[in-house]
């Protein structure tokens, strides 16, 4: 098992390093900042969705939705980031405590 | 500029490190339960250090899968880190000698917390507080979880999975100014939902990145500034 553990760690690291090896000539193109901004929005949006409704390959609606809704409300009221995260956790925990999935 | 510890990027990085790090206990418990030794479980957190891939690895082993299929599942999930690394390379431009170090701390949260900032120094602080902060908490709680086993129960009971969603939403929120970013966010969210059931975990995020690039290209061609 040690072999597979270490091989998987090595592969994970190789993937992480590969992205840092983009040639500078590519990065200095004028469109890069606006493309990077678009990618940021797309990746963050996808991470929100994945963490909220994915359970492996299944789409699941559960208490995490309450957490996201409550966090959105906290953001609307411009509460500090740590409060937003806490509100997300509390709303999710409250949903589970109330017997929701 | 106040003391670096107090900047928004540092505060959000520390918040994320606490919320995400606690989840390390769940990983530690699951790793030992799957039949890995405490040392193997900790090695995954120390060396692989990408939560999704780690859960995939022990999930396959725990389900009776082979080492090869565990390797394949973990590696597939790790592909998105390559995309994040490109993003971070364009943003942080680390010196050649420091790329190897940046790579180890390139994960969902460090990319997200760096990308959410606009000032270059804040981006750097955002990357390092989230990356190093999670590295410390994640490894500490992996060890605790591996030693304690299931004694501490499911972290979902404490809403920690909801905290992760809120953390990413909190980073996305300030970026949703104007029609174009909102359009890109919506299109990518829809693409993610569509591909979650169709593609192995991890790939929908890469597909969303491709969709974002496509949407960006369409908006550029129309001459609409993004």
Task: Write a concise synopsis of the structure shown.
The complex is a heterodimer of chains A (101) and B (226). With 101 residues, chain A is mainly alpha-helical. In chain A, 73% of the residues lie in helices and 4% in strands.
Describe the structure.
The complex is a heterodimer of chains A (101) and B (226). Chain A has 101 residues and is mainly alpha-helical. Chain A folds into two domains: 23-52; 61-101. Chain A has five helices and two strands, in the order αααββαα. Chain A has helices spanning 2-18, 24-27, 32-53, 63-76, 81-97, and strands spanning 54-55, 58-59. In chain A, strands 1-2 form a two-stranded antiparallel sheet. The longest helix of chain A has 22 residues, at 32-53. Chain A is flat. Chain A starts with a helix and ends with a helix. In chain A, 47% of the residues are buried. The mean pLDDT of chain A is 93. Chain B is mostly helical. Chain B folds into two domains: 4-174, no CATH class; 176-226, no CATH class. Chain B is globular and about 55 Å long. The two termini of chain B are 29 Å apart. The mean pLDDT of chain B is 91. At the A-B interface, helix 1, helix 3, strand 2, helix 4 and helix 5 of A face helix 1, helix 2, helix 3, helix 4 and helix 5 of B.
Which key features would you list for this structure?
heterodimer; A: about 100 residues; mainly alpha; 2 domains; 5 helices; about 5% strand; flat; B: about 230 residues; globular
